[in-house]
Amino acid sequence: MLSARSIFQEILDKDESFRLFCSIAASGESQGGWENGRIAALVPESMRHLAPKITRHGADEDKHGRLFNALLNKRELEPVPVPPETDYTMLLEQRGIGLAHDKLGRDEPLTEQDILVYLSHSRVTEQRAADQMDMLVKYFGEHPEVGKPIRMICHDEENHLAYCHEELLRLARAGHGRTIQRVLRECAMAECRVYRDVSLAVMAHMGRILKWPKAKSAALATGIHAMYAYERLGGWRRMVSLTMPERRDALGGPATSAATTA
Questions:
Q1: Per-residue pLDDT tens over the stretch 170-195
Q2: Distance between CA atoms of 57 and 37, rounded to whole angstroms?
Q3: Smallest Cα–Cα separation from 42: which of 54, 59, 26, 57?
Q4: Please, which residues have CB within 8 angstroms of residue 107's CB and are 6 or more apart in sequence?
Q5: Distance of alpha carbon 72 from its chain centroid, rounded?
Q6: What's the number of CA atoms in the CB half-sphere (13 Å) around residue 39?
């Protein structure tokens, strides 16, 4: 029977598929680390109080990239180039979601509107990350090889999501509520399409590596399309709601080290 657990177990069991999975994950996390680092450096003076939290966010993302690379190292595997069609971060940027890398590469201060866009984009993408990590922890949280790293990453993603909720609610109370809801909806709709496309591309690569029969690959593709249809019909709303989190000031302290998993 096809399930998220059985599919990931197949990926985990074969070095070549595990290598691709970790390479894609490490690359995405490292890109997120760079982006947050640049945003922290370019925060406008009126919002400098956010810089330490954005820095912490970036440090966490860098740590996650190191954790995935450490999993490769333990198997004596080298990272592989990430196929462009599986590059979630790049594809979001190409669709105008978030802050463009060319803007972040310049030494020009960002605007308050830019920070609003960054937080809204993060609210959507961190929801996806938190959902994925919750699923992995449910099935593999006690796995001797990947359990400890994914539990650590899951905890961090929950912090990131709490931080986005809290800061966006503060901005909404300051009069930006209508703009925030518009940007959140735009981000969510684009993210759902990108996630579908990336999921299809990743499963196609895994199917070739694991030599899945055509019927199995077709069934997985059908499931991905069905999830996209559900999200378009209303599932996207979970990505745009804002609720004050139980974890307040979730990114108010220093980042934890990846060394404890080595």
A1: 999 999 999 999 999 999 999 999 99
A2: 8
A3: 54
A4: 42
A5: 19
A6: 32
Residue 13: what residue type? Answer: D
| Percent helix, percent strand, percent coil in the chain, to nearest 5 | 80, 0, 20
Residue 142, SS3? Answer: coil
Rounded CA-CA distance 121/98 in Å is: 5
Instruction: Say if CB 8 and CB 140 are below 8 A apart.
Output: yes
Q: What is the pLDDT of residues 12-26, one digit of tens each?
A: 999 999 999 999 999
H or E segment at 35?
helix 15-42
Cα separation, 176 vs 84, whole angstroms: 35
pTM metric for this prediction: 0.93
- Please check whether residue 20 is in contact with residue 209, taking contact to mean a CB–CB distance below 8 angstroms: yes
Residues 6+ apart with CB under 8 A from 48: none
**Mean pLDDT in the chain?**
95
Residues 6+ apart with CB under 8 A from 100: 93
Q: C-alpha distances in angstroms, 157 versus 74, 108, 122? A: 24, 29, 11
pLDDT in tens, 109-140: 999 999 999 999 999 999 999 999 999 999 99
